[in-house]
Amino acid sequence: MKILAPLGSLQEVEMLAENGAEEFYCGVTPMEWIEKYSPGVWLNRRNPFAGVMSLKELQNIVNASHSYNIPVYLTLNAPYYVQEQYPMLLELITRCTQDIGVDAFIVSDIGLMMAMKENVPAAVIHVSSLAAPLNTGSVQLYRELGAERIVLSRSVQIEEIAELKAAAGDIELEMFILNDGCVYEESFCHTTHNRAGAFCAQSQWEYIALPTDGNVSLNHTERQALENQVTDYREFVWFVNDCGCQLAQDGLPLGPCGLCALPELYRAGIDSLKIVGREGSPYRKLASVQLVKAVVEQVRAKAADDEIQSFARKVRNQPSFCDSGLMCYYR
Amino acid sequence: MEFAIAIQSLRDMKLTERPWKPFSYQNEIETQTQKAFFEAWETVYGKKRMPDRLYFGSEFCQYRLTSSIAVMKALEYSRRNGLAFTFVTPYVHNVKFHALTTILTELQQEAVKVKEKVEVVVNDWGVYSHIRKQFPMLCPVIGRLLNKVVRDPRIADYYDNENAPPQAINVVKGNGLVSEWFGRFLESSDTVRLEFDEAIQGFGQETESHALSFHYPFGCVASGSACMVGFMDSDKKDKFRGDPDCKQQCQRYTFELKNRQFTHMTHRIFQKGNTAFYAHNRTLIETGLRRAMQAGAVRVVYSPRLPV
């Protein structure tokens, strides 16, 4: 069970490697892409400036990471790619595989998986959570398409893992452990954060409750219950969106967290734990890696479940947030 | 052009008879979209006509998956009324994947019995793959959730505008399913039909090689496991996640979402249960129907209700 950390620049490699990162992932958006498609068409799920901007810097990142024996995975997980984008994508994958030494590509579009297998068979595919691996049918499909790892969707819960693991066979499973949730299923959110920000950002919206059927009206009690529900929903989204994108007073990141579930994830045979937040500050990444590492070490030392859970709560140092239950990835 | 009507509950089956006729329990937005749809229809096609096909089931919520008894009743209803039948399915976690498999097994048996394939709209690649392997008498159609067209009413107009960055337009008006490589994946079987939401920014790609369906008058913005009204009566810590014992509160409560930042949006937004929708306006519907008329073989799918 490895700790997979996000990378935003070469300068972060040493800091994160020395503090517990065991795998890295990052994005790259070459200037040629931006010139061809504009900054609004993202090469991967995050905006171009959340990743590195040149293959030269990517090369330096891979070299530095490999000097620590840490593999580097590259995100190619835009929700879809159109036909005209394929030549540039395949050239990028070829260069990254053959020349730069990228260890795997995190891919969501089945078309791109097909193209990679045909054109760059040496390229290793990790299926992104954006491909909605939710059930044994999808896990089997992605395995047949040649994936070597599947990143399970954020909404997959602990009790579902055993069947998915059995379906995965000898390929790896990765799950989310820290930061940046999604209110909707990532694969089925058809919006863009470009220009508009997250669709789920609560500051944008006012909710007006209506009866689903037009021939009934909502009574006072129902309206009050729905108002309370909206208040709770806004609070839930606040947690999902990293508690208003804050760091805690002690510098630790706030937001979705699966640390208490680590013993179960370990026993379930999860291979990799994803820390989210490529676009976060170096300090946020460092604090995230240290936080996860501290709890993973307890698991590796075979501490009892309740000891691990109370340790996780202690190092998080946010008892009221933990008690709310709304900050938990796995609940 | 084939005209299909999409129904999510047995209760609504009567709406297939005269879908243009107001019904007693339709809400204000459904009244408005029904009027817009059939006015646009009359402008483009002239006379109203009865549907050719029934779509039955929820595309968006696994907890709205009906029983196989209900599916069989809907199939029987469609036969009795001279409608072709399509079973519509949502994305599913494993428990509902098994429940769906039970329904698909019964549909397969029925299809074998009458020696006629049954069409199934899939919104989950796992379900698609499972049908391909296990149910040769079921014919999967690629549902609109698997068709990753941008559907963001906040910025869609920006990309249907002469000031939009020209190099971005082909991508924003495009989709991945019609790429050569996705085509190879789909063509390894006999999948022929792709489903679309009518996109506010329009479409920019040639899609003639596929059979196409377009859904009206509600497009999906986003769908997920955090239902806005499920678990209403539970403690806060248990809310906003999938509910195996869902009480179907979405069938009682809906929200309209008013945006404080993008105040000039041309389409209203609603959230029903776990899914946000944009309601098509008259212009968008008419644009789509005109394109359908020119293309000829297109299927138009009309949902009288916000489709959860």
Number of helices of chain B: 7
- Helical content class of chain B: 25-40%
| Rg for CA atoms of chain A | 20 Å
Helix content of chain A: 40-55%
**Structural Rg of chain B:** 19 Å
SSE succession of chain A: EHEHHEHEHEHEHEEHHHEHHH
* CATH architecture label name of chain A: Alpha-Beta Barrel
Number of strands of chain B: 12
Explain this structure.
Chain A: This is Peptidase, U32 family. Chain A: Pfam families: Peptidase_U32. The complex is a heterodimer of chains A (331) and B (308). Chain A has one domain (2-201, 241-324): TIM Barrel (Alpha-Beta Barrel), CATH 3.20.20.380. Chain A has 13 helices and nine strands. Chain A has helices at 11-18, 31-37, 55-67, 86-100, 110-119, 136-144, 161-168, 220-240, 242-245, 262-267, 282-300, 305-316, 319-324; strands spanning 2-6, 23-26, 72-76, 104-107, 125-127, 149-151, 172-178, 205-211, 272-275. Chain A has an eight-stranded parallel beta barrel with strand order 1-2-3-4-5-6-7-9, surrounded by four helices. In chain A, α4 packs across α5, α6 runs parallel beside α7 and α11 runs antiparallel to α12 (305-316). The mean pLDDT of chain A is 95. Chain B is α/β, with parallel strands linked by helices and 308 residues long. Chain B is built from seven helices and twelve strands. In chain B, the strands form two sheets. An eight-stranded parallel β-sheet of chain B has the order 5-4-3-2-1-12-7-6. In chain B, α1 (28-45) packs parallel to α7. Chains A and B meet through α5, α6, β8 and α8 of A and α1, α3, α4, α5 and α6 of B.
Relevant terms:
heterodimer, A: 331 residues, alpha/beta, eight-stranded parallel beta barrel, 13 helices, B: TIM Barrel, 30% helix
